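Practice problem 4.
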């Protein structure tokens, strides 16, 4: 299990109302969370940056700033908890003032112009010490652009975890609240997958990333698209991941708070289903709780 973590500029952590128990971490509380992840034996953490609006701009320069929020967070974690695998979200949406995953021309996302910036972001994250970079923007050609840039910069051994099959889902709502990354206009349907798309569409997306050099393929969200996991498992001889996303987490938390479900049983059942379907690792906000439950 991999634990997604949010970090912001503040000196104190902030609670995320729509994701009970999750925080926008300060740097110090982020290191504490990373140490907890290592102590629990988690597979790693994924770091997401949360910038104040005044630091965002149209080209998301905070994403690829050598001294950006995520870059400094990675350096600090690797310094204090060097044994922990640190993954970096490689996208622009948390850093653009319009909230889209790429730069825009008018009200259209410019796919090709975004590729260079995603590549710069990945290189800056690898230089900061990220063990794995994880492009999530769903731009055509992003994996190839990132692989080439990493290789040329001397990071040929840094793997790419590709959000290969990422749907335009309503299950991302709490995440966008946590990361302050909701689009200010339009939506992401033009570059994320249609929820009605079938296996062949998912296979085509995954095959493109596979050819471009992805080392790990991921399906997001996890449970609504669990039918995709065994198909990809059969097709590709490489690690497969699933993202148990914020909406899935928040719904279990809300139902449990109302006494409608047994939280522990439901959370573990959901995560077990993903493992049974073929996921070799799962990104989940339940990671620390689930690890503690399983150790009992």
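Answer key:
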């Amino acid at each position: 299990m991999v634990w997604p973590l949010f970090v912001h500029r503040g000196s104190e952590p902030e609670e995320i109302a729509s994701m009970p128990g999750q925080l926008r971490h300060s740097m110090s509380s982020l290191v504490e969370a990373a140490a907890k992840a290592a102590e629990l034996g988690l597979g790693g953490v994924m770091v997401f940056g949360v910038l104040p609006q005044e630091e965002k701009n149209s080209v998301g320069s905070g994403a690829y700033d050598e001294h950006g929020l995520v870059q400094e967070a990675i350096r600090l974690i690797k310094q204090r908890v060097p044994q922990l695998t640190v993954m970096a979200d490689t996208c622009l949406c948390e850093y653009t003032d319009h909230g889209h995953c790429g730069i825009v021309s008018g009200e259209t996302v410019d796919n090709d112009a975004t590729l260079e910036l995603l590549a710069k972001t990945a290189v800056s994250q690898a230089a900061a010490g990220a063990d794995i970079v994880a492009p999530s923007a769903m731009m055509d050609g992003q994996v190839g652009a990132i692989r080439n840039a990493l290789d040329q910069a001397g990071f040929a051994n840094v793997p790419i975890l590709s959000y290969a099959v990422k749907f335009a889902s309503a299950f991302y709502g709490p995440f966008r609240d946590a990361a302050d990354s909701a689009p200010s206009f339009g939506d992401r349907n033009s570059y994320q997958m249609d929820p009605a798309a079938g296996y062949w569409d998912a296979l085509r997306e995954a095959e493109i990333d596979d050819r471009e050099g992805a080392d790990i393929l991921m399906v997001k969200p996890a449970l609504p698209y669990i039918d995709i996991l065994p198909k990809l498992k059969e097709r590709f001889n490489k690690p497969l991941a699933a993202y148990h996303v914020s909406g899935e987490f928040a719904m279990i938390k809300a139902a449990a708070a109302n006494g409608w479900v047994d939280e522990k049983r439901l959370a573990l059942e959901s995560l077990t289903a993903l493992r049974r379907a073929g996921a070799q690792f799962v990104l989940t906000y339940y990671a620390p709780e689930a690890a503690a439950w399983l150790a009992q």
